[in-house]
Every structure is written in C-alpha cells, then in structure tokens.
Specification:
Rossmann fold, 14 strands, alpha/beta, binds nicotinamide-adenine-dinucleotide
C-alpha cells in the first residue's frame, strides 16, 4: 500500500515510517520540522541525538534498499498539503503531525492558540484535501485516551449505548479533556466524524495511551535511525521521565497523590497497531475509534517499578511527591476498554522490569546530555500566563536545530504566532531570541 505519514520526522512518526517500509509498504513523509524548532524555543533537546530527516532517509535506503519520499512543509498550508496528496496518491494517511504536549498548550494564550490552530486546521485541511482529491483514502488519525478524561464509569471505544426517557441510541462517548492540547484532539474527532458522515470519507481515530520506550527493530539498526527521547517538563512522558531521573540520581517526581491512572503502551505496539488499522480499513463513510493502549497503571506504580529496578542496578532512586501543576483528579475510577486492536491480532509487549532495566541502560549511555534545568514541570494549569523560563534557547541549541534544516517562512504558514515565527526564523539563521 502507499502510505503517507504526516509528522514522519517525530518520535512515533519516524519509526512508523521504517516499520511500514520494512513491511512492504511504499511510504512518504510530510513534516515541517516544527517539533525540532519548538526544542529551540523551549531550550529542550532529545536525550538521544537525532539526525536530520535527509540523513535518516538516506541511511534507511542504504540499509533496506527501500526508497522513502519526503514533502517538507506545513499542513496548515492547504496548497502545500493538496499538492503533496495529489503527487503521492496515498491509499492511507497516518496523521501524527500535531503539537502534542499538554504543558506546552497550557503555557499561555499564544501557546494555546498555536496548538489549536496547528492541530485543528491541519486536520481539517487533510479532510478537505481527501474529499477533493483522494476520497477513498483511509485516514488513520492519532488521537489520545486523554480525550475521555477520567469518568466514574467504564470508558468504551468511542461510542456508548445510552437509554434516556425510554429510548435508546449509540452515541459518541462523552469527552472531558484535560488541556487545550487534549481539546484540540476532541475538536479533530468531531470534524473527522462529521466528514465521514457527510462526505463518505473513511477514518480510524486511534485514542492512544501514553507511549514509552525508544527502540524498535529498525531504530536499533544504525545510530542515524534513532528516534527522539524526551524527558523534560514540557515534552517528556511519565515513564521516560522517571527513568531519566533515576539515572541522574534525581528524585522520581510524582505529582500529587500519584493515583492518577492512565493507559500505556510500548512504542513497538504503536507501530503494530497503526499497521493493523491500515491493513483492516473501515468501509467508506465509516468513522471508527480504537482505544490504543495495552495496560493501565497509576503513576505511583510506574515510579515504584522504576525505583525497584534502579535499586537492583545500584542506583539510589527515591520517590518524592510534588504539588501537582495540573488540574486533574488524583484519585479516581479508571477502566477503559481496549479490545478492538487485540481482535485484529495485536500481541502486546507488556511492561516488565526487564524493559525498564534496558531503558535505564540506554539512558546511562547518554546521561552526559541530560539538561537538568529542563526537568521541572513549570507550567501551572491554573495560570494563563506562565513565566516562560523555557524560552531561553542557547546558541548551541539554535545551531543544532539550524543543522536540522529548519522550515522556511513559507513553510511556517501564517498561523504560527509572530513571536514564535521570529524565534524559529532567527534560529534558522543561527540567531537567538
Ligand atoms: N507520544 C505519545 O506518548 C503520544 C500519546 C498519545 C497520542 N500521541 C499522538 O501521536 C502523534 C505523534 O506524537 P509524537 O510523540 O510522535 O510527537 P512529535 O512531536 O515527536 O511528532 C510530531 C511531528 O509532527 C510534525 N508536525 C507538527 N505539526 C505539523 C504541521 N503543521 N505540519 C507538518 N508537520 C507537523 C512535527 O514537526 C513532528 O515531527 C501526536 O498527534 C500525538 O498527539 C502521542
């Protein structure tokens, strides 16, 4: 199949590109490198060095013999996106290309605006481009389990049967998202469902849990094929953060009560879930939702697993409770269904101390690169104008990102805030601020 991966330069997108290519699909990438540019803005950096997209693609071709096409640009630019889709003629689009950090979306007005415009406009553009040029193409869209929030009843896969005043119907499951980022995903879901119903498009909305891990069978083939590993307070996800904290002898920072429960999955399962969705497309006009995670844990359970595994390696890990910067329930019921991908053949990799042990080893190799000052979670959900201590890119970061081929002004489109655009363009030119 011809698969276009939007956001194919990101944490999940790049390994997904290789996974699909290794499994016989012809793959194209769309990306505008905004994620690399946002590292410049935030003063953050992947723990594991990542190579420019051109190097990644050339290395993959050298190793696998498989060609990958690339389209560099911003999907909020409708003409660019339309041309990419008309040129590539995909059978399926995997849409990873969004701003994906909840803390980033909660920094202030500027960041909330960027997140929602980037995500909602990007997805809406895809829907229009598909309707006009590729109506049979299957859109596989990455949503998040965070769209549901933490209701006091079981979470179904997208829809729930409700009886009300003696009548019954199957309706979209109620959403109680926890940040402006999560809200952008809910808005996307509504737009996609509408386009399937009204225009007859087909789509799978993958409500994904939190992904952990960094190695897939392809990323380990060559250091130039590695994917990013984030651990800081803006981009890092919980298990990755605890593992880095353990390696550098930093306390494992659990927010609030630590009973917050979420769905999790191994990065190798993400790769397989997306492939399963592509191989088993919905009918034209069908909008379906899969809950894409394999196990659920409280954050305290994860911290405890890391603490115990670290101790066995002689690392003196300890857990501390921190005031929760987020507004969320800290003790709650959580039971989310996740059977549809298993029914399609997913064989989950479960989280074990062996996996945590290997993550600790991998992180140890790069611990000299940890930027300790980026670890605290400084974005407070209760504030509308968080101090932007993050926006202090050093020249070193700017130079690194410039080497990663930052987007041109045209690629950034008109929706990136003037402030952010100036920083990105300055950093492209090797300037700071
Ligand atoms: N990482 C997780 O744990 C997780 C969990 C649930 C859902 N998701 C979802 O999966 C998707 C991918 O996540 P990730 O962790 O790989 O994120 P990422 O930030 O590493 O990758 C996203 C990629 O999309 C690109 N992009 C963003 N906006 C774009 C635009 N307007 N035009 C072109 N390219 C654009 C970025 O440059 C980046 O390379 C996101 O939608 C995210 O919400 C991720």
């Amino acid at each position: 199949m011809k698969v276009l991966v939007i956001g194919g330069d990101g944490y999940l997108g790049w390994p997904q590109v290789m996974h699909l290519s290794a499994n016989g699909h012809y793959v194209g990438i769309v990306d505008n490198f905004v994620r690399r540019a946002l590292d410049v803005e935030c003063g953050t950096e992947s723990l594991i060095p990542i190579y420019p997209l051109e190097t990644r693609i050339a290395t993959w071709e050298e190793i696998s013999g498989n060609r990958i096409e690339s389209f560099v640009g911003d999907i909020t630019n409708f003409d660019f996106l339309t041309n990419a889709i008309r040129s590539f003629e995909p059978d399926a689009i995997v849409h990873y290309g969004e701003q994906r950090s909840a803390p980033y979306s909660m920094v202030n007005h500027d960041h909330a605006l960027f997140t929602q415009i980037n995500n909602v406009v990007g997805t809406l553009n895809i829907l229009y481009a598909l309707k006009e040029h590729r109506p049979e193409c299957h859109l596989v869209k990455l949503g998040t389990m965070g769209e549901y929030g933490t209701p006091n009843i079981d979470i179904e896969e997208g829809f729930i049967e409700i009886s009300h005043n003696g009548r019954r119907d199957v309706l979209p499951y109620p959403k109680q998202p926890g940040s402006f980022y999560h809200l952008s995903k809910v808005h996307d879901s509504h737009n996609i469902m509408f386009a399937c119903r009204v225009w007859g498009l087909r789509s799978t909305d993958l409500n994904q849990g939190v992904v952990y891990g960094v190695e897939t069978p392809q990323t380990v083939l060559d250091e130039r094929l590695a994917t990013r590993f984030d651990y800081d307070g803006i981009w890092g996800t919980v298990l990755n953060r605890y593992c880095v904290e353990a390696v550098i002898h930093h306390p494992l920072t659990v927010f609030g009560e630590g009973e917050q429960t979420r769905g999790f999955l191994d990065i190798r399962d993400t790769m397989r879930c997306v492939e399963l969705a592509i191989l088993n497309p919905p009918a034209l006009g069908e909008y379906r939702v899969f809950n894409q995670f394999t196990e659920q844990f409280t954050v305290r359970e994860l911290a405890e697993l890391v603490r115990q595994t670290a101790h066995k390696k002689g690392l003196p890990a300890r857990i501390v409770r921190e005031k929760n910067p987020r507004v969320e329930q800290e003790v709650h019921y959580y039971n989310a269904k996740h059977v549809r991908l298993i029914d399609l053949g997913l064989e989950p990799h479960c989280l074990t101390d062996t996996l945590v042990d290997s993550m600790l080893d991998k992180i140890s190799e790069y611990k000299h690169r940890v930027r300790v000052e980026t670890i605290p979670s400084l974005v407070n959900w209760r504030m509308t104008n968080n101090p932007t201590r993050y926006i202090a890119p050093s020249r070193r970061h700017a130079e690194q990102a410039a080497g990663a081929k930052l987007p041109s002004e045209g690629d950034l489109g008109s929706v990136v805030s003037a402030h952010l655009r100036k920083q990105i363009l300055n950093s492209r030119d090797g300037k700071v601020g």
